[in-house]
Model the fold of this input.
Amino acid sequence: IVFRYSDDREELGGQLFLEVSLCETELCAQITGMLLELDTATIKLLLDNQDLLQEAVEKAKNEFIAYINLKKEKEELGEEIYERVCEYHDASTAGRLTGMLLELDTVWLRRLLKDPDAMRNKIEVAFEALTNYQSEESS
Done:
């Protein structure tokens, strides 16, 4: 059986949500949002093929969980890094420097937290970059 689906993205999204909710009840809204990033033809294909839909839902769910775990890890690292940066700078500057340092890879950040000298060096490099940026902005 081949179903005919609307070309209207909102209606297609509603249909997709219903199908996704049958596969994944807890994260159906998030997964539907992710799948709606696909082109219309692909979404229609997923709606017509339960196996492809299930595979797409699993892939999206795994990506979403990985994203959430990374976000949580970054938040935890951010708290630890902020405490370290506050040893050398005021709270306002520490917040900015922490944000800059959080752009680094989490593996690298964990290494920095284990090596106080390397951490201090990275903090100062970030501070110099921030100072230079602020100087250019005021010119």
The radius of gyration is 23 Å. The CA atoms of residues 82 and 95 lie 7 Å apart.
